[in-house]
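Example (one chain per record):
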Amino acid sequence: MIISTSRRTDIPAFYSTWLLNRLKAGYACTRNPMNPHQISKVPLTRDVVDGIVFWTKNPAPMMRNAELMELLKDYPYYVQFTLTGYGTDVEPHVPRVEDSVFTFQKLAECIGPECVIWRYDPILLSDTYTIDYHVKHFQQLADALAESTKRVVISFIDMYRKIERNMASLGVRAPSADEMNQLAASLAETAHDHGLEMATCAEPVDLEAYGITHGSCIDKTLLERISGYRFSSKLGKDKMQRPECGCCSSIDIGAYNTCAHGCRYCYANSSDASVRKNVAVHDPESPLLVGHVLPDDKITERKVQSFIEGVNGSPASQLSLFE
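Predicted structure:
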């Protein structure tokens, strides 16, 4: 079983103490987004967790949690670190780009460059964030991060209705097909000049001509390299994601409407008010990320299994920041 931590929120930035408590307890509970009174109890013990994939814009709080970092040494994991450097008009509460670059570099020193994936996404356009802006800014970030990662992932913004509402005052739009190709050609050249593999995230557009592959954010092959294990073919594609998504199956332990970064392009938050309400009832001692188990909730233990079927070789080194 692969644990996604999390597509729905930034657990490393805001909920590292909760995660520590859940790993120590050996399980976490998650509410069904479509049926809130239906709760899954997800085992987190090492015998069934084959790997953990983190999604974050700021892993610094997790990195400062010495006990958590020590526990994570028992688990194969990698971190998807979104670093775009948009201004506070788009990413109101994300750390300054200078601070994020420093954190990225320190994390790579801790767990190795292969285990830190740079996400430059979503790519959006406006009078402020032009094609020239992205070309220049991506070059600057690549200069800073090239020694700290092996892969960069890009995607183009999907203008869902709530995102259009959040972006209305900023004049943001999605790139056209021609603009996608123009950007892809330039960004790929920069990435390849810096020795970085480039992939897309759940994009239908074919950019193979620029050396850009269709990526897998929950990447079975990468987890095999990191862990040294060989996974069974039964660990298949995640059927719960979009058709363009290349991720293998995983279980997400996050919750929607809990990320306090406030990014205007976020699909996981419905409103700032919803986030404030949920953050107010977060209890790091609760098995749930938001609130507590209620009397009329139904808890079902998730049936999971390990997909490890053999050993490939020596796993990649993942060192504690405090060694």
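Caption: The first helix runs from residue 11 to 14.
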